[in-house]
Amino acid sequence: MDGEELIASVLHKIEREKALITAASNMRQSTDNPLVQQRVDANIREGRKNIAYLEEKMRELEIRQRNQGAGSPGQRGGPAPPPKDYAGYGGEQGDYGEPHYPQGAQARCLPVPHSPTLDLTPRSRRLGPITQS
Fold first, then answer.
1. Residue 128 Ramachandran class (φ > 0 left, ψ -120 to 50 alpha, else beta)
2. Where is this region: Disordered (predicted)?
């Protein structure tokens, strides 16, 4: 979907929420049942929250569309990919860790600490809790 289609979709959702709020208001006025009125009031509040959220998203889409229109055609697809001969990969002097991973990947691949009393293997789940010996 392009920007205009997304904006039209969000506008359609806003109109649908407004119609639901109108219907809920009419239902609230047509009943004296306090439980029904409470439920309808909750639906109205939820619809108003949805409208506020959708309007915020619509503003973001409009800003994004305006910014894309101001940029050059090459900038519309996001940031440019890195060059194929990217020198940020391991194997250079001073690098640590696996030579075929980029330096930044090591921070994302830290080992998960395990509790000495918690065994997550399938065997431990079948046999019950672990006991300290």
1. left
2. 60-133
